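Batch manifest, entry 17 of 40.
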Amino acid sequence: EFNTAYSASELSPMLKEDFPEIEAFARFQPLEVSEILYNNQLLQQTGMFYTDPEVFDVFSVNLLMGNESSALSNLRSAIISKTVADKLFGNESALDKTVKIDGVDMMITGVFEDLPKNTHFKFDVLISGADGRDWANETGVFNSEVLWNADCANYLLFAEGTNIENFEEKFAPFNEKYFMPFGNQIEGSHTLRLQQLQSIHYDKEAINDDFAKGNPTNLIIFSIVGFAILLLACINYINLSTARAGSRAKEIAIRKVLGTNVGKLKATILTESLVQVFLAYAISILAVWLMITQTPLQSWLGVSFDFTLFENPSLLLTSLLIVTVTGLISGLYPAFYLSKIKTVSALKGGWVANRSSNIFRQALVLFQFVISIGVLLSTMLMKDQIDFLQTKDMGFSKDQILLINTSDSIAQSKYQVLKDALESNTAIEKVTSSNFVAGTDIGQIVFTVERDGQQVQQEFKFIHGDESYLSTFEIPLAAGRSYDGKETRGNQYFVINEKAAEHLGWDDPIGKKLGFFHQEVPGQVIGVMKDFNHFSLHNPIEPLVFVFNPQPGRHLIVRFNQNRVSEAIATVKENWDEALPNYPLEYSFLNDRMNVLYEADRTQSKLIGSMTILCIAISLIGLTGLTSFNISQRKKEIGIRKVLGAMTVKIVTLMFSSTLKLIVLASVIAAPLSYFVINQWLQNFEYQTTLDIGVIAFGIVAALLLTFILVGGLVVKTARKNPVDSLRYE
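Output type: structure tokens
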């Protein structure tokens, strides 16, 4: 059973023919090649698709050169992005130029503006001629099997006002008529469903062949932490405003004596808060613009975005709303609290804050530390999981593998020459070739397997390669043997992984019958390889079949001696230039490609880490202000204690004790919350590290030490002063 974003290329025209609600369709059928040849210049290019002339009716493709009505109307015509045009033709006009794609002449009939970075579907070359229905009807009878070949991204444009839910009900009879003749033959089932374009980006469903998506979990996490930082700043403002009430008591009392009513006084204090918040907003706009445009922030995070605040009205209005609410939250309590100061007491100099206000401030400080310690612990636990992913054994060698692009047929024809030359050098240990690379690429196909004396259909993930494939990746065998290169057919012998044997219930898989779906005489299993992770560690290991294929594939795969990297690369370059002098060498390291699989996790960890520093810094700034204020209020007490013989350590302990209680209580609250949140986050990974209590303990101790150093430093500074200075009246 599998779920794919792709479907048959024949599907869209059939749907449009049967259902008048569909106004137009656009199909994108990927090319197997990734090269364009022009004037002996070879360009390695991704994002190439066969499509339909109606693509302009469905999507906004902004043509800089060419005409929408005719650009893709003829076979062997293609339109290219401006970036590709610049690479191929420089300052020359691209129109009516002829290039070779997959060895076939194609005329450039249009150049389109590069797609925006945030596009759902990315393409750089569109070629006329997506597969039609000729194959499906080649014998005069519709061939249901072709519809089960999911090889194309199909997009439908519906007439305005179409009820999609009602339309989907029509899929059932359509599916039964066209798909199920073959489905009944193989005892399989098939379901069609629609997905709106706008819902794809944050869709969490696991779909094969899917396109780049946003992670809604990350968005929620970053939003929560961002608002937590904002809330911490609000708490600081409230705490410091109310703590300074004593110093503003006479000012407020005089305002009341001079006739200012309570309502106007509240409005004045609230306005102070709003003015400060809007000033901060203006400064933050400048700061964010500088960070995005003038610093390596985006490179460090591995992201790409633009400063579009003033180009996006909804974003601007939302930010202004947030700023206004922040000002109100920060200013409301101080406005009500300060406006209640009793005039007579304040003018006599005898006004003191009541006990309830002190408790309220302590509660706010406690809340601050719960947030800060919680985010700190979550960050440390996230980093622990990401480190685990980086170091976990995936069941194959990935640290000494060089991948060379050989997608062109001419490059593939030189495979044996390159293999022999490279393996003769002691810096190179093994060489193989395949379309599939362990850990990153995988195929999927229907086989027939032996069960209860019969051959039944079973879909498996699969890879193929020659006799050197398993040894190149150092994938060990659990039973039987691998290929020896003497095999004459790729459907004669098969090697499966342990998971496949377990899935099929084969205690002794060697000799069991296995074959491709249309294979009349099945082959047999000759070996069982140890399980290895053929996807990232977000995914479980699935049943897998390794198929012998002596033909070279898109990748030349080289395992080199770990201590002789430079020599190995030099050897590859030398032999490549000798065998293919007109072809550029493109290579990458497998461990780098594997690291990309966890790039989003690392970015998330970096962002959360940066936000953690902000959370802690804001909390400590607020604590510094409150501590300084409390010390200034109690400096005579400290002076008297000094005169009576109290040691500095005793004074520090006394002043820090209340803060210590708050941090301990905050840790008790934050630790289980962090544990719960990270435990939920870990569900995104098939393989999870054990949540380390030691990491949590270390985070709490670090928070205690940091706070103690800060508060203790302020108290020590005051305690070491001459008590005469604080006790002198005049």
